[in-house]
């Protein structure tokens, strides 16, 4: 029997596959397609202190093997999320990870505090890498000092483990990773989207109302693999890997690069059953390449 | 409840300039579909699915028909599919036109370009309910016109074209007065047309069907939101719509 | 008649399409497929002071809508290039752009000097963004001060116009662009490859012997468009755009973003006739979207 | 001179486990191709082409046949193609086996796995020139064996398998001595096999055909280089090869 379980700070995962933040709402819609209990965990859509309406539409565009999005952190605010969304997810036996965003360090702290008072939330994912809002988000994610600062402040108020989600829009991902580990992060999430743009020929304007958006999907997988592989030897906290995962084989590739678990975003849009299908195929793929457990494969791409 | 299914393609044909008609077989979809809902279809090699309205439903043959215009890579790829192949579909998606709630005598349907298809299934259903259906159809030019005769078989039909090559030369809104009395209207087409229509008919009850670029097509990603006056301030076109009360959303 | 001509510093281009450095050798192989006179210009493979043998193989891998390469600046050295390759290109009526690389500023200067003595070279492209060599390359390209320094030194010895080729592996592409413009660059080339990696499941190792490689092809087009669009309003020198161009429509998209000409790399591998086919289709595409000339379209995606 | 052409697929069949045989029609390619050259073929949706050796040439029918093993996405995609469809090909690529230069009596051919196909066309050509052809073919297992009878029709043929399920249990090199005298050898297969073969036969003249991941397939990108003792220090497999003198390159 292939063992899919992974234990991470705050997260006892029966399998390493979870939907990525923002690509799965709060689970409700996908629960129409399959039983959410099949998932390793659910990472919720970003929460901010107050409700936000996000950017103007169009908010998505398709690119070669990928997509751009500029949702702009639309969400009903942390209190509303706790009241109506977390309570929905409580009906399932899956750990819930709350994705925390904000325009100021204070807002991150407020959101983190609220989730810390919610027993059914198992961990926080600090979104310091959203490229689609004017304030906060990626600003915190492109400077190691700022990233460390927001991590420290959130850690100071949080008994829940904190995973810091890194942006790939940087020339030195290792410095970012080290800075947030130093600041107390319990884990990393890598990677958020690459900033991109598409210009619509007929209208002579960027396709997205926000002009730029975050590039996700299979197109960015080589960037994600490279960043995880680069960071892994320099840190001792676990990595949740993401960026273009669409197949069970991709899960193994991320494990070999150094991820301990993975998140699946864009692929849910192509096929709503991506996560459960991937989980079903994972034991076979692990066996095919000679692994008896997920744990076994983590970081094995680093062997000489 | 929508499902992901492989629908079998029975026929694909060009019925007007760059406009394809495709008939698809699937028992579940044909049984569950309602006019105004859409299929969220996958063109091979593409990351995002394409929303295409259900144009008509044949529950006996267990088929639905879609009509689509070739505007880019995805629709070009769909147009190349051949009978016997399958189409990976999530459907029926979204909420269709509310038929049962409206105990109406006369309905006015106003469609523009590729907004016409969902109105055909609606016209058919209304007609079967005994409603008097009048339709105004707007197209770019004569070459783009499709389903004119089919609508004519159902009720009074006005065609307008941007260049005057068929029917009235002008906009759908030019004809609304001429079409006379009605109890309720249904409209689908490009946003500028819908703005003009809902403005012109602001005192009349009606429904409109909206388009927006979609990510998940299922309500999870918030790509397709439209502002409204509700407490949340928005609706999702893919799951709350694509059909909305004409004055229920902020265009 | 649609006018495809563009005038750039040192380069009177009859059309804006040129093969990108490293993807076309020195033109010889593609001259078997078509008449090189059809091209706007030819950008040669990188030249260093001495011959280099580059990295171990495998040197390429395929990714979703793209590829990774780690050639490692293999080339016969600048003198040999001038003797046998430039002389071959002299047989055609196309401007020749020399791509200049090195491990030290002195090496860049040496190579630049040699090309400055070669009458048939029309411009230099300074490759400060090669991710596949241990020394030089991207080191110069990820720090604005270093980039400015190498630009200044090369400009000091060069009567030929100098285009500086920027790396996308940075959090602040605008700062890089401004720094090299300030340092005297006559134009920019954007973008070089994104650093990426693929892990080969069966061997548990990176597919490339060099481990990391440069990601190119359609996958990176949104990143290129966004960077060109971001840089354009901040500089007054022209941009040669590249990154995932495969169709005449892509050329127009790059023009709208702010490029004055384009280079085509990876797409030559998918179809050796990509460049001439694109050039043939370009007038039709420009007309379809209402442009009478290439010049007309440059930067038009910035209109509100 | 190689060209980019669309070849018409005449047949596709599985001839051994995960091993496909495809016959392609094209007058120019069939006329120009030589044993040992390859086709650089495009699998739809892929950025890089795949090099596949020409396994045999029928100049009367104007066809060439390729044999390929399904190992990944590209070959899986090729295996799904159907007769009547076309295959976008750049070919004939590379340099084939030097036949004319060798006025030989007896040739030994040593092939491993998917290195066997180019040797078949070679065996055929040598046989037609009156050369006595002996062949050693190595496969993973019985299920992977193909073209055994065809080689047997040409000359003495030894089969070895990794697991002993057919023929000798072991490696191709185990049989070389048994195969007896020869003037020249030709070998194609995985690099470890080629290393073993060239080492064992270091005092004999021979040619080997190499594989490497390719970018351009035409000599421009330097993806596929192999070190040698020449002034430049390297050769390009796609354009200088894939066939090299057995001791001409550094494996
Ligand atoms: C609810 C709904 C119903 C629709 N019904 C029909 C129909 O019955 N017939 C028909 O021809 N068209 C219909 N459309 C529009 C259709 O979805 C687009 O024409 C199609 O997606 C274009 O795809 P493409 O790849 O050819 O174009 P591209 O421009 O290459 O597409 C690029 C991306 O933009 C999206 N996109 C482009 N235009 C639209 C649009 N108007 N609406 C939504 N997404 C778009 C595509 O889905 C894709 O993700 C409908 C749209 C919606 C939202
Ligand atoms: C000169 C030459 C002749 C060949 N002739 C044959 C033949 O006749 N029959 C046959 O089955 N195979 C042959 N091969 C190997 C064949 O090219 C690969 O098996 C094929 O490219 C794998 O593609 P894929 O997409 O299925 O595998 P993937 O592993 O998914 O391919 C990923 C990438 O790696 C490349 N790649 C993977 N393996 C190889 C390899 N061994 N050599 C070169 N590139 C590789 C692919 O082309 C592609 O770019 C030959 C290779 C060369 C260089
Ligand atoms: C539509 C969309 C919305 C997203 N929203 C969020 C978000 O709210 N918070 C966050 O941390 N990441 C968000 N992301 C990023 C994803 O979680 C993920 O990091 C990224 O898309 C890469 O993974 P993928 O290639 O599998 O999609 C979003 C991505 C998409 C496509
Ligand atoms: C195989 C290969 C070799 C390259 N060699 C060079 C080089 O020598 N010098 C350079 O400046 N860029 C080099 N590049 C980068 C390209 O010139 C180009 O900037 C990049 O590939 C993006 O364009 P594309 O997506 O059209 O390939 C190379 C790219 C590839 C794929
Ligand atoms: S497309 Fe995702 S919410 Fe509508
Ligand atoms: S594959 Fe480009 S030189 Fe051989």
Automatic annotation (TrEMBL), chains A, C:
<feature type="binding site">
    <location>
        <position position="165"/>
    </location>
    <ligand>
        <name>FMN</name>
    </ligand>
</feature>
<dbReference type="InterPro" id="IPR033888">
    <property type="entry name" value="DHOD_1B"/>
</dbReference>
<feature type="binding site">
    <location>
        <begin position="69"/>
        <end position="73"/>
    </location>
    <ligand>
        <name>substrate</name>
    </ligand>
</feature>
<dbReference type="InterPro" id="IPR001295">
    <property type="entry name" value="Dihydroorotate_DH_CS"/>
</dbReference>
<feature type="binding site">
    <location>
        <position position="99"/>
    </location>
    <ligand>
        <name>FMN</name>
    </ligand>
</feature>
<feature type="binding site">
    <location>
        <position position="21"/>
    </location>
    <ligand>
        <name>FMN</name>
    </ligand>
</feature>
<dbReference type="InterPro" id="IPR024920">
    <property type="entry name" value="Dihydroorotate_DH_1"/>
</dbReference>
<feature type="binding site">
    <location>
        <position position="217"/>
    </location>
    <ligand>
        <name>FMN</name>
    </ligand>
</feature>
<keyword id="KW-0963">Cytoplasm</keyword>
<dbReference type="InterPro" id="IPR005720">
    <property type="entry name" value="Dihydroorotate_DH_cat"/>
</dbReference>
<feature type="binding site">
    <location>
        <begin position="243"/>
        <end position="244"/>
    </location>
    <ligand>
        <name>FMN</name>
    </ligand>
</feature>
<comment type="similarity">
    <text>Belongs to the dihydroorotate dehydrogenase family. Type 1 subfamily.</text>
</comment>
<comment type="subunit">
    <text>Heterotetramer of 2 PyrK and 2 PyrD type B subunits.</text>
</comment>
<feature type="binding site">
    <location>
        <position position="127"/>
    </location>
    <ligand>
        <name>FMN</name>
    </ligand>
</feature>
<keyword id="KW-0288">FMN</keyword>
<feature type="binding site">
    <location>
        <begin position="45"/>
        <end position="46"/>
    </location>
    <ligand>
        <name>FMN</name>
    </ligand>
</feature>
<comment type="pathway">
    <text>Pyrimidine metabolism; UMP biosynthesis via de novo pathway; orotate from (S)-dihydroorotate (NAD(+) route): step 1/1.</text>
</comment>
<feature type="binding site">
    <location>
        <begin position="192"/>
        <end position="193"/>
    </location>
    <ligand>
        <name>substrate</name>
    </ligand>
</feature>
<feature type="binding site">
    <location>
        <position position="127"/>
    </location>
    <ligand>
        <name>substrate</name>
    </ligand>
</feature>
<dbReference type="InterPro" id="IPR049622">
    <property type="entry name" value="Dihydroorotate_DH_I"/>
</dbReference>
<dbReference type="Pfam" id="PF01180">
    <property type="entry name" value="DHO_dh"/>
</dbReference>
<dbReference type="InterPro" id="IPR013785">
    <property type="entry name" value="Aldolase_TIM"/>
</dbReference>
TrEMBL record, chains B, D:
<dbReference type="InterPro" id="IPR050353">
    <property type="entry name" value="PyrK_electron_transfer"/>
</dbReference>
<dbReference type="Pfam" id="PF10418">
    <property type="entry name" value="DHODB_Fe-S_bind"/>
</dbReference>
<comment type="pathway">
    <text>Pyrimidine metabolism; UMP biosynthesis via de novo pathway; orotate from (S)-dihydroorotate (NAD(+) route): step 1/1.</text>
</comment>
<protein>
    <recommendedName>
        <fullName>Dihydroorotate dehydrogenase B (NAD(+)), electron transfer subunit</fullName>
    </recommendedName>
</protein>
<dbReference type="InterPro" id="IPR008333">
    <property type="entry name" value="Cbr1-like_FAD-bd_dom"/>
</dbReference>
<comment type="function">
    <text>Responsible for channeling the electrons from the oxidation of dihydroorotate from the FMN redox center in the PyrD type B subunit to the ultimate electron acceptor NAD(+).</text>
</comment>
<feature type="binding site">
    <location>
        <begin position="50"/>
        <end position="53"/>
    </location>
    <ligand>
        <name>FAD</name>
    </ligand>
</feature>
<comment type="similarity">
    <text>Belongs to the PyrK family.</text>
</comment>
<keyword id="KW-0001">2Fe-2S</keyword>
<keyword id="KW-0408">Iron</keyword>
<dbReference type="InterPro" id="IPR023455">
    <property type="entry name" value="Dihydroorotate_DHASE_ETsu"/>
</dbReference>
<keyword id="KW-0274">FAD</keyword>
<feature type="binding site">
    <location>
        <position position="216"/>
    </location>
    <ligand>
        <name>[2Fe-2S] cluster</name>
    </ligand>
</feature>
<keyword id="KW-0411">Iron-sulfur</keyword>
<feature type="domain" description="FAD-binding FR-type">
    <location>
        <begin position="2"/>
        <end position="99"/>
    </location>
</feature>
<dbReference type="InterPro" id="IPR012165">
    <property type="entry name" value="Cyt_c3_hydrogenase_gsu"/>
</dbReference>
<comment type="subunit">
    <text>Heterotetramer of 2 PyrK and 2 PyrD type B subunits.</text>
</comment>
<feature type="binding site">
    <location>
        <position position="238"/>
    </location>
    <ligand>
        <name>[2Fe-2S] cluster</name>
    </ligand>
</feature>
<dbReference type="InterPro" id="IPR017938">
    <property type="entry name" value="Riboflavin_synthase-like_b-brl"/>
</dbReference>
<keyword id="KW-0665">Pyrimidine biosynthesis</keyword>
<feature type="binding site">
    <location>
        <begin position="74"/>
        <end position="75"/>
    </location>
    <ligand>
        <name>FAD</name>
    </ligand>
</feature>
<dbReference type="InterPro" id="IPR039261">
    <property type="entry name" value="FNR_nucleotide-bd"/>
</dbReference>
């Amino acid at each position: 029997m292939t063992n899919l379980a992974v234990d991470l700070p705050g997260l006892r995962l029966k399998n390493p596959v979870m939907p990525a933040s923002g690509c799965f709402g709060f689970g409700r819609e996908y629960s129409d397609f399959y039983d959410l209990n099949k998932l390793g965990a659910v990472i919720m859509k970003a929460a901010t202190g107050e409700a936000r309406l996000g950017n103007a539409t169009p908010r998505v565009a398709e690119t070669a093997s990928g997509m751009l999005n500029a949702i702009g952190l639309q969400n009903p605010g942390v209190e509303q999320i706790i009241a109506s969304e977390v309570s929905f997810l409580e009906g399932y036996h899956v750990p819930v990870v709350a994705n925390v965003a904000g325009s100021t360090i204070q807002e991150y702290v407020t959101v983190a505090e609220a989730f810390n008072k919610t027993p059914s939330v198992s961990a926080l994912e600090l979104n310091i890498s959203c490229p689609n809002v004017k304030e906060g988000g990626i600003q915190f994610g492109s400077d190691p000092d700022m990233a460390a600062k927001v991590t420290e402040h959130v850690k100071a108020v949080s008994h829940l483990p904190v995973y810091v989600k890194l942006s790939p829009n940087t020339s030195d991902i290792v410095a970012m990773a080290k800075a947030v580990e130093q600041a107390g992060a319990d884990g990393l999430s890598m990677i958020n989207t690459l900033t991109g743009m598409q210009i619509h020929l007929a209208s002579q304007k960027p396709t997205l109302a926000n002009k730029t958006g975050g590039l996700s999907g299979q197109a960015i997988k080589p960037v994600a693999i490279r960043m995880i592989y680069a960071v892994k030897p320099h840190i001792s906290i676990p990595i949740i890997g993401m960026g273009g995962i669409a197949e069970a084989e991709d899960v193994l590739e991320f494990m070999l690069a150094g991820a301990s678990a993975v998140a699946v975003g864009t692929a849910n849009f192509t096929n709503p059953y991506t996560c459960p299908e991937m989980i079903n195929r994972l034991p076979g793929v692990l066996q095919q390449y000679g692994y008896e457990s997920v744990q076994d494969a983590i970081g094995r791409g680093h062997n000489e | 409840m929508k499902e992901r299914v492989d629908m079998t393609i029975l026929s694909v044909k060009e019925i007007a300039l760059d406009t394809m008609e495709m008939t698809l077989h699937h028992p579940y979809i044909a049984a569950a579909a309602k006019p105004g809902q859409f299929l969220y279809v996958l063109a091979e090699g593409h990351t995002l699915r394409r929303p295409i309205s259900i144009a008509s439903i044949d529950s006996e043959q267990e088929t639905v028909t879609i009509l689509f215009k070739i505007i880019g890579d995805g629709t070009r790829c769909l147009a190349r599919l051949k009978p016997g192949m399958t189409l990976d579909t999530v459907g029926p998606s979204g909420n269709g036109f509310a038929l049962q709630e409206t105990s109406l005598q006369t309905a006015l349907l106003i469609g523009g370009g590729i907004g016409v298809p969902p109105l055909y299934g609606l016209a058919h259903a209304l007609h079967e309910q005994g409603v008097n259906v009048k339709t105004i159809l707007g197209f770019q030019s004569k070459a783009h016109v499709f389903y004119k005769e089919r609508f004519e078989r159902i009720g009074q039909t006005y065609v307008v074209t941007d260049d005057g090559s068929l029917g009235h030369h002008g906009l759908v809104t030019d004809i609304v007065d001429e079409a006379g009395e009605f109890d309720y209207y249904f409209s689908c087409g490009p946003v500028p047309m819908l703005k003009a229509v809902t403005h012109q008919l602001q005192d009349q009850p009606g429904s409109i069907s909206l388009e927006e670029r979609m990510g998940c097509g299922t309500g999870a990603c918030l790509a397709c939101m439209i502002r409204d006056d509700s407490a949340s301030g928005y609706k999702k076109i893919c799951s709350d719509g694509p059909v909305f009360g004409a004055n229920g959303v902020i265009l």
